[in-house]
Structure formats: structure tokens, C-alpha cells
Structure of Aminotransferase class I/classII large domain-containing protein:
Amino acid sequence: MPMEHLLTLNENPLPPLGPVAAEIAHHVATVNRYPEFYPERLKGVIADWLGFPVEGLVVGSGSVGVALQALQATVRPGGGLAYGWRNFDAYPLLARMAAARPIEIPLLPGGHQDLTGLAKASVDTDAVIVCNPHNPTGRFVPAQGLREFLALVPTDTMVVLDEAYIEFVDAGQRPDSADWVREFPNLLVLRTFSKAYGLANMRVGYGMTSPELARRINDFQLPFAVSSLSVVAVEASLREQRELRTRVDFIVRERNRVTRELIRVGWNVLPSQTNFLWFDEPERTHEIREALEQNGVLARYFESEGVRLTIGDTEANDAVLRALS
Ligand code: PMP
């Protein structure tokens, strides 16, 4: 059976918003020219759109690129970097690249990050990462829990709040995390154009922080890091807010439909606030894999832990439900 439905990487199943592909195509003839040395224009565009001071904004090659710059700026050689584990695969790689000592705090039962454990660890680490909503479990920490956590972290430990999936969180629950950087200047809120905006291949991420921390992070900005085609794609995407909301609503509706149906037929699927689902089924990963692969669906398997499944288009989601019902 050919694998028709690639539901492995939490990508957006939809093509770029409205005129974005055409805008990129229009600018392709300029690829012999370098982009800006540092992406100042992109920063201005994002800052204007956010209504966030440009002095506190950092941008880079995906949010992983921004995270790497931030760790290089704040973690001393061999200094601690704490995060929950299991988590986004890139964190241990970033730790290695930044010469940090990874401190992995096990998740709590039910796929929650152990914020108390992370706060304790943060006392002698240079940086700590909280992924919210969490990859791979889809769990979400509401604002109050995050603020209590931030208050416990020493002011000289950087907190990276990775909000790659924030657009998929229920509107009433999305934290005002960008506003917290005034109170917590050690906080870096990370976002990306890779998920809700569907620009994974354009590699644009950004971070919101205090001007002090932004200055330090910007010292590690790689020259020419963001292609001007990516800048065009972001600018065109930001003009399509209405279509963006329609698409996010579609993905959220599909996520809720697939979750409901899988729970109804007996799978232990956690409630998700992202564009993917977590099967909290450590004993059944092989069984799930076989059933999905027979229906042309590829998901992400974590043996003895569970399965992560990206929400796809309707056809892909229907194939999942056929496989697992
Ligand atoms: N953070 C998390 C939690 C992710 O899951 C991902 C992508 N899988 C990223 C960041 C990476 O995003 P980007 O494409 O912006 O580097």
C-alpha cells in the first residue's frame, strides 16, 4: 500500500494561503541576489502586525533557528538546559549544538510537563524550555499555571516558551504571553510560520522578549539567514487573516471530530490543543502502526510510549478513522 497520507511532522495539510504561492513565484527570478544581511525588514513587518516593540523581537530560520541563537546567547559551555521529556525532538539537538548539559525532566502521567520539577531544575540551569501546547502530547498549560511557573524561575535563567502550535488553542484560552516579557525579562516567547500559516518550508520563526535579551540573542544572528522569498511569503500570509482563521477552524474541527470518534471506539487519545493527537497507548503502538499503514497512513511512533498523529485533510482523517474503528 503506498503511503498517501503523511501525518508525521505536524504540517499543515493545506496549500499556502491565497496569493502566497503566486507571490513567491513572482519573486523567484531574484534568487541570484542575497537577502538582507540581517532580516530587519521582516522584523519590522512582524512587529507592526503584532503591535510588539521591534527592539524585543528576534527572527530566524524557523523557530528552531531562533531557539538555537537564544541558547548560544545564554547558556555557558556545560551549563544546564532543562526541558520535559518526551518533547520536541530538536531540544536535545539544540542542547548539543549550544554545548549545553541537557536536564530532562520526565513527563507526569497523562502527558503533562512537570512544571514544579522544571522550576526546581531551573535554579541551577542557564535555560529552561516549556513547550505549550506540548509536542507530542498536545497538552496545554493555561496562563495561570505558566505565570506561577515563571515566578519561580530565577531571573538569570532564560525561559523559552515554545508556542509553535498556539494558533490551534481555543481562542478564550490563549495566554497573553507576549505581555509577560515586561514582568519577566528572561522570558522568550517563540512562535513560527510553519504550522498554522503552513509555511514550514520557508523557515521563518520569531521570538518576543525583552530588549535586553533580544540584543544578546541578535548577537548570534546568522548573516543572510532568512530568504527574501520567505519574507515575501510571510508578508503575503499576514494579509490573509480571515482565510487563516477559516483554515485553523477547519483543522480544529477535524481534530475534535477525529478525537471524539477515536475515543468513542475505545482508543486512549488525549484531548489536544494542537494540530495533532497523542495516543496514550504505550502497549499498542505496533497494532496502531499496522492498522494505519494498511490504510496508507504514516504517523509517528514512539515505541512503549505512544503514537503521534498529525491532523490531515478530510480524506486523510477519514482514512485514519477507517483504519482504527
Ligand atoms: N517547536 C515545536 C514544539 C515543534 O513541534 C516544531 C516543529 N515540529 C517547531 C518548534 C519547529 O518549528 P520551525 O519550523 O519554526 O523551526
Q: What stands out?
A: The two ends are 19 Å apart (CA to CA). The mean pLDDT is 97. The pocket of 4'-deoxy-4'-aminopyridoxal-5'-phosphate is lined by residues 10, 62-64, 88, 131, 135, 162, 164, 192, 194, 200, 205 (CB under 6 Å). The chain has eleven helices and twelve strands.
